[in-house]
């Protein structure tokens, strides 16, 4: 499955905010750090705020921060919010046993399995230092 840029950028915005928990982060910082268009990031930050993952503060000294602790935000949640599932035409096709299987149901199930697997990983997992060989 190929992830959209929006999902990629949303994850990066959240990682950056989680890495700076004691202050408001500005969109320009994230844009500079990841070399991403500020205009595109503004849309992502707006969506993340609307979804309740960040708190956005307007004004001269404004910015954004996580609305929840990084241990409670899962990759599955982020992907589910930003990815749209594109279905094949809703047709039934014979499966190996000769019975008919609904393609839309198959893709629904596959997408849910994908996002369910990502539920095991939190934002904290992405910002935590990698274990060393001595750990």
How would you describe what is shown here?
The protein is built from 6 helices and 4 strands; from the N terminus they run αααββαββαα. With 135 residues, the protein is mainly alpha-helical. Strands 1-2 form a two-stranded antiparallel ribbon. Strand 3 (92-94) and strand 4 (100-102) form a beta hairpin. The longest helix has 16 residues, at 103-118. The radius of gyration is 19 Å and the shape is elongated. The mean pLDDT is 84.
Helices and strands in order, then pairings?
Layout: H1 5-19, H2 27-34, H3 38-50, E1 54-57, E2 63-66, H4 75-82, E3 92-94, E4 100-102, H5 103-118, H6 123-127
Antiparallel strand pairs: 1-2, 3-4
Defining traits:
6 helices, HTH-type transcriptional regulator NsrR, DNA-binding, TR_Rrf2-type_CS, WH-like_DNA-bd_sf, 135 residues, mainly alpha, 10% strand, Tscrpt_reg_Rrf2
User: What structural category do the secondary elements indicate?
Assistant: mainly alpha
Distance between the termini: 33 Å
Task: Determine the strand fraction and express it as a percent band.
Answer: 5-15%
Determine Rg (CA atoms, Å).
19 Å
User: Major sheet: size, sense and barrel closure?
Assistant: 2 strands, antiparallel
The tally of strands reads: 4
Order of helices and strands: HHHEEHEEHH
Relative helix content: 40-55%
């Amino acid at each position: 499955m190929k992830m959209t840029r929006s999902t990629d950028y949303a994850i990066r915005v959240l990682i950056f905010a989680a890495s700076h928990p004691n202050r408001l982060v500005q969109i320009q910082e994230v844009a500079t750090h990841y070399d991403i268009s500020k205009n595109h990031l503004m849309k992502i930050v707006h969506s993340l705020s609307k979804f309740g993952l960040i708190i956005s503060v307007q004004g001269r000294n404004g910015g954004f921060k996580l609305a929840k602790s990084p241990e409670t935000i899962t990759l599955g949640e982020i992907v589910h919010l930003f990815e749209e599932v594109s279905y094949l035409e809703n047709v039934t096709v014979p499966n190996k046993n000769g019975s008919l299987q609904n393609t839309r149901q198959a893709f629904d199930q596959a997408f849910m399995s994908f996002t369910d697997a990502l539920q095991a990983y939190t934002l904290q997992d992405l910002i935590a230092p990698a274990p060393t060989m001595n750990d």
